[in-house]
């Protein structure tokens, strides 16, 4: 799969969740249905994945997929849903990555059914700033997170940045790389975590992922992360697309 990565720059992309007024929230996943995958290479790195029926997840199903880089290490990269948290962990001296995919039922945790969600509308609220909300409940070291999405018209878009603090960061749809993408007709969603190139032990947990359909920013919000959003100019284009297709 080929994806266009939006280069991380020096303007604000994630905002503290307390710095806005929410209009309406759509739950992507509350992580109530248990699930776990671990890549334990034992000399040969072998990606591991699973798909489970999850009423708490958008589309009713959740795919997990992990892989580890270090083929000579007996430790693992793990993705686990337990106690209403999604945990991502690398053991000592191991780098790796994990994917969480929402594409309905396709019996394939490694691939993406790009129309599996059937055109879910993630922006049904009033005028404002729509975007993703992440409940980061535990984090010992920074890691890279990427959000990918596919719409029902064959468009794909994504945003990539580094998570470096707990809290409730907000990622506006305007930060994404493809202005032609339609968040009113979403076919699949994927969230990707990567420990990066360093050999570190990452331990992070997410309590929930959701969409705020019409955030109204308050004055001078505190910054949580720095990312590749060159202002909110993309939001105007998003609004034009929405009016054109509705």
TrEMBL record:
Top-level taxon of the source organism: Bacteria
UniProt-recorded name of the protein: VPLPA-CTERM protein sorting domain protein
Keywords: Membrane, Signal, Transmembrane, Transmembrane helix
Residue stretches spanning the membrane: 218-238
Source species of the chain: Jannaschia seosinensis
Signal sequence region: 1-23
């Amino acid at each position: 799969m080929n994806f266009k990565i939006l280069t991380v720059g020096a303007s604000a992309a994630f905002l503290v969740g307390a710095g806005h007024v929410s209009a309406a929230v759509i739950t992507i996943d509350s992580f109530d249905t248990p699930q776990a995958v671990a890549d334990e290479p034992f000399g040969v790195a072998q990606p591991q994945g699973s798909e489970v029926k999850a009423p708490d997840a958008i589309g009713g199903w959740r795919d997990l997929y992990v892989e580890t880089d270090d083929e000579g290490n007996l430790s693992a990269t793990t993705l686990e849903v337990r106690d209403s948290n999604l945990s991502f962990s690398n053991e000592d001296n191991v780098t790796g990555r994990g994917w969480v995919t929402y594409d309905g039922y396709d019996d394939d945790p490694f691939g993406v059914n790009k129309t599996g969600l059937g055109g879910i509308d993630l922006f049904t609220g009033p005028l404002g700033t729509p975007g993703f909300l992440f409940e980061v409940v535990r984090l010992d070291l920074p890691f890279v997170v990427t959000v990918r999405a596919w719409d029902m018209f064959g468009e794909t878009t994504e945003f990539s940045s580094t998570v470096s603090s707990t809290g409730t960061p907000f990622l506006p749809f305007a930060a994404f790389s493809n202005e032609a993408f339609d968040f009113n007709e979403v076919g699949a969603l994927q969230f990707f975590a990567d420990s990066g190139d360093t050999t570190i032990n990452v331990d992070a947990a997410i309590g929930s992922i959701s969409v705020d359909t019409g955030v109204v920013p308050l004055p001078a919000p505190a910054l949580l992360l720095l990312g590749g959003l060159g202002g909110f100019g993309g939001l105007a284009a998003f609004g034009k697309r929405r009016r054109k297709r509705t």
